Amino acid sequence: MIKIAIIGFGTVGQGVAEVLIEKKEYLTKVVGDYKVVAVADSKGSITGDFDLNHALKVKRDKKRLPDGLTALEIVKNLDFDLLIETTTTNIEDGEPGLTHIKEALKRGKDVITSNKGPLVVSYKELMKISKKNNCNLLFEATVGGAMPVIKFVRRCLAGNKILSIKGILNGTCNYILSRMEKEKMPFKQILAEAQELKIAEADPSYDVDGIDAASKLVIVANALLGIDAKLKDVKITGIREITPEAFDVAMEKGYTIRLIAEAGNELKVSPRLIPLNHPLVLQGTLNALQIKTDLAGDVVVVGKGAGKRETASAIISDFIDLYANQTINFI
Amino acid sequence: MMLTLIVELKDKPGQLIKTLEPISKLGGNVIGIVHKREKITPLKKIPVEISLEIEESKIQRLIDALKENGITVREYNQVRLVTTSSLLLIGHIVHTDISDTINRIDSTGFAEVVDLHINMPQLNGPSTALITISATGKEKLKEAIELLINICKEKGILVVEPINEEFL
Fold first, then answer.
1. S-S: A94 plus which of A52, A101, A117, A249, CB 3.0-4.6 Å?
2. Residue B161 touches chain A, beta carbons under 8 Å
3. Based on the number of CB atoms within 10 Å of its own CB, is B32 exposed (0-12), middle (13-18) or buried (19 or more)?
């Protein structure tokens, strides 16, 4: 029996819980029996023997979990095998996720996370702790949402030397730029509409100033290129200054503009001129990554970079990766 | 660096090899050879135009080596600008002295602004320019782009760089 603690019960945490219920029969076949023994948010928790559906209902009705053990108490003391850490990203110091993950790893517990903060701040240290305690830290959901990146490169491109990675790692910026390209409206106006559609946050700076994309790039650089990179190593330029006229001028020469994150000789996130027929020219909130390798040449993946079920998809794939005790029957 | 070389060869076997050997020894890469038989000289020599890539620092040694082999070098000229890149500038491009920006690229001696397309939507608003720079080689082009980025940083202009290569 795999005992799971879900810390962070916002959109992502709830999404994971829903899929764990929805796909119980299938997942049990693949990984064996499992049970969620704790869910916690920033205000409270439910632990022990409880019905996960009930916990979801409480959270939906009351907007919070009832008073109980704190997330930290659960991580430090409760009996579980797997921590699913889905608290909000904090790229300044990685907290509270960083402490949750560290404490779990120190106890030899496996961790799956969607939280970029801890990895951006302390990738190397966390990997060291997991190795020392003989447990795993998986983080597919931190980069590109549902788009396969980490396991895709590590598994499917195994044996290749990764020469460079570049791509679109922020759906909000791609949405704004692709609409500016089509409709020739100013940045501010499209941003306002994106905020109304909940594609952009009320404070959009994390997205439009390139910080979110840079955070993901730091994880990619560490995990796939073996570069000991931190956020301060990334040259970052956002998209606020891009004008509709810029698209006119670019398109005359067969180019458009996208926010591209690139890890190769240097790490940078910046708006780039890109030929219209390039596979990284996408519309809407899609994410994409172009991986340059020595054997396979260029490989491109495209997918949804955010969303409740999309992020849950990445976490569940890590879950199966970690515990599948038989060859998965794909048919 | 690309070099175009016109040599005059006697119309008998073994002449071309005398020209190619020094190029090869100096690590040059021959791109094309054209015999201009229709332009045969009064001394019955045939002008041959050879295009090659060679390091700039080795050009003089090549010319000397050819002369030592008894080859008449009629003329040679460096094809200066071989690589080109377009960048987008956004900001107060004109008001921050566009001609100064261009001059600073042109005065490098290895790069030139070969095309500039400006769009100025409003009098005091930011304008956009697509600037095309040519340089004598890939490394020099990189250097020129770095220079442009620094100039623009100094002038508060946003530079949108191209994605490095076409997708293959």
1. A117
2. yes
3. exposed
Tell me, yes or no, whether A212 and A141 share the same domain. Answer: no
Q: Mark whether A232 and A188 lie in a shared domain.
A: yes
State whether B89 and B69 are in the same domain: no
Condensed to tens digits (0 to 9), the pLDDT of residues A116-162 reads 999 999 999 999 999 999 999 999 999 988 899 999 999 999 999 99
Domain containing residue A314:
2-145+308-323
What residue spans of A86-138 are helical by DSSP H? 97-106, 116-132
Please indicate whether residue A216 is annotated as part of the active site: yes
CB contact under 8 A, A298 and B91: no
Q: What is the pLDDT of residues A87-123, one digit of tens each?
A: 999 999 999 999 999 999 999 999 999 999 999 999 9
Q: Catalytic pick from A109, A216, A268, A304?
A: A216
Handedness of CA A264, A165, A281, B138 (dihedral sign): positive
Do residues A135 and A163 both lie within one domain? no
Chain B residue closest to A278 (CA)? B167
As a whole number of angstroms, the distance between CA A46 and CA A67 comes to 8
A74: domain CATH number is 3.40.50.720
Q: What is the ipTM of this complex?
A: 0.77
DSSP per-residue string spanning A145-175 = TTS--HHIIIIITTT--EEEEEEE--HHHHH
B32 and B66 in one domain? yes
Compare CB distances from A250 to B91, B130, B166 and report the shortest one's residue: B130
C-alpha–C-alpha distance, residues A184 and A194, integer Å: 15
